[in-house]
Amino acid sequence: MVEEFQGLHHRHLFVLLFRLWFFTMDRIPRMRLKLLLVFAASCFAAALADTDPQDAAALLSLKAQWQGTPPSWEASDPCGAPWDGVNCSNSRITFLKLSSMNLIGTIDGIGSLVQLKVLDLSSNPNLTGPIPRSIGELINLETLILTGCDFKGSIPAEIGNLGKLTLLALNDNHLSGSIPASLGRLSNLRTLDLAYNELTGSIPISSGSEPGLDLLFAANDFILSNNQLSGSIPPQLFSSKMNLSHILFYANNFAGEIPETIGLVQSLKILRLDRNQLGGSVPGSLNNLSSILMLNLASNRLIGPIPDLGNMGDLCYLDLSNNSFDASLAPPWLTMMESLTTIIMENGDLEGAVPESLFNLPSIQTIKLRNNSFNGTLTLGRINTQLQLVDLENNHISKLMPENSYTNSIWLAGNPVCYSSDLRSCKTQIQEPAPYETSSRNCGRECKRGMMPNPESCACSYPYTGVLHFRAVFFSDLSNSTIFKSLEEELWRQLLLTPGFVSISRPEFDDCDHLDVQFRLFPSSGTSFTREEVIEIGFFLSNQNFEPPHEFGPYCFIMSDLYPFLLDPIGRRSLSPSIIIGIAVGCSVLIFILVGVGIYAIRQKKRAERATLQSRPFASWRNTSTKGSGPEPEIKGASCFLYEEIKKFTNNFSEGNIIGVGGFGQVYKGILPSGEIVAIKRAKNGVMQGGLEFKTEIELLSRVHHKNLVSLVGFCFDKGEQMLVYEFIANGTLTDCLSGKSKIQLDWHKRLQVSLDSATGLAYLHEHANPPIIHRDVKSANILLDEDLTAKVADLGLSKLVPNVAKVHISGQVKGTLGYLDPEYYTTQKLTEKIDVYSFGVVMMELITGKKPIERGKYLVRELQLAMDRSKELYGLEDLLDPAIKKEGALIGFEKFVDLALRCVEQTGVNRPSMRTIVMELENILLKAMDMNPATAISSFLESTSSDLHHGYNYPLSISGTESHTFSSSDVYTFSKTIEPK
Fold first, then answer.
1. Catalytic site positions
2. Strand boundaries in 573-624, DSSP class E
């Protein structure tokens, strides 16, 4: 018996026994008092708590509003058990570290943990809501990390009360409003990171008794990039008292001039002011920054002479592109910068000869000087072997010396020297070396799903995956094995992993010159990290404790995938033998009695539940459903599942089975007893939410069947749960494909096919369902792609039945998704099938551009309309094209596709085509793009669908003499519409 209790904490036993007793007492009333007395006598001593009552109550309150807490949190005592991610000192909770746990909920009530020194909730993308003002009560807090979550609203001014704070990281959220001036009171703050939010307004500066960011003399890092901040950069912000190393203000809306006072901050190593609207000339004081390693002033409105930067002897990375500097020769100091790895001065007015010595700078890797006015003879001379890229496209270079010389690194297209010569530098696009990737031995083995072979030992294990998002690197050669191997080494060394148990892949620069490095960490022993280890890894990386090699500069950490926790014991500390024996003697008899009675009661209860559910699955609908959801759903043919059955299908709703998260809740992958793989959508918080949407979707999907609509397998309406069981669609959403998340590349032909598939599904809803159905939430996230990349329309939760979709307008509450919402529907609230047409037009534009409907405050429909020029090839939309299809060259049918998309988003519904018309036109476009005549298309279609004859499909149309008959596009449409499920 003692061995059976090894590792079981007494508080866990207390909770377990109490729950089991409570379950049985309703069924065996006479035993209640005896069981309670025995229970109390034997286990009372085991219930003593080690946690301060105030802290325990605060943490239990958080646990009640969170989903996804670690299993160890089922214990009753946070400090005594202990709970994963909770550290205590003298019974008070001082550290709360829950990085990468996939917590779901809000953080209301966090302010009660007044002894906290460290709060790290990073990489929990489903933590949402506002940051509560009560966070200002954590006056002992030294580290606050809320990165990579979904917090909204303004930054509470009360954070300024946290006088001991040294790290404030709120980046990668959806925070809005202005930066609170009260942050200027954080006199010990070293890092202020507010990047990647939606902050507006200007930078607050102290005035009188009011604080401002200019008072943060201890700060090393000002990171305000990728927001919507505006106004000028105040000169008062900088002074010689500052100790700043990094000023990252790029990708905002700052205007005015660059302050002279930046030159007073002699400690500065990185200055990024690019992608703003700064004007005027560059102040000469910047030349005083002798320690600077990176200077990026690109994409502003700077004028005047090119600044003299000759004193920046350590400068590695320089970008002055896309400004309006005075025309001039290449500045002489440029050829004396021996530390320069990267020179970018594109779209300017540099003239004269390109300095020969530029190509032999001792550290040079990349030179980008396209779209200038360099002229005369290009003399190559000696070229540094490290040089990977020289881009001189679109200049005025007339001669190359020595003649016919060529290296793989030089590109001269668009220069006069290319007009009358046969130089390879004019014809052969530069092929940059493949980015570095960790080499691994040929292990010759396959690992089961989710596992990967360790690159060092070939043992299969579950890696921890993430991205190191470097904001200012000092190099540009992504094939440099030496520098990336040093990054690998630092990762396993500083994270105390076994040497070689780190893998790096796909380093790449994004549109803001960030370097994203994908990495995998493998456990040093066993096949999986524990939760405690994952928490420590997340904290180590988010807390900026990791020190990458010098060349990589500042970074932030982003978790990639939810970790499949396999080692989740409830409490990992063993008790002493004497305590175990005492608990065992007091409780063993009670356990055996309760287990026997509990098993019998559970079996009886399950039998009764199964019989009741199958006879009337919605018996409790009126009592438990959301107000306004109407009478019980009417279903046809869908299977009804018990809650316990769904638990088995999803491995007890394990985190490893989660394949999607949305506003409704989570989607789990499940396996039915038959072996069929399904997707199970579970309503949020296990409560009755959106009863009308649940009813609508279950009724519609149980009676509509089409190859371009996601099929409903069954449902669960049991124990207060709402769950829908769908066919599993292997390749995820169209959104994931277009964003690159799913790693599936869609060429132009496939995009046409996806649009045709989706339109066909919607046309079926509009014209062949009885009564017709309006979807109301058409978007790329609701279009799924199966293993053959066939598109299927999903999520009918907002759909509406219409007695006669062609004639009836229905008024009511506007439903839909911002960016796809029909403006006419929004203003008039009149519902017609043309709202689906508008949304589908937006999806077509996504297929063209690969962009989201609303991105950085820009509306895709308007951007495309403004950029269009029908007099040009591809309508002049080259800059908006998705790079994945832009490289294909000729896009047959592109212009007609764009025309159709624009007709779909006409302001008034009456001017938009019907889905039937859209299908017909898309078929014509696709046939021409594939160089197929309609007869060939129909024959191919018959061949591809012949197997469906065995699956309950009707083919009422008889076609004879197919080879000799000439079919029109309308024939193709009519034929395809007759091939529908029974």
1. 777
2. none
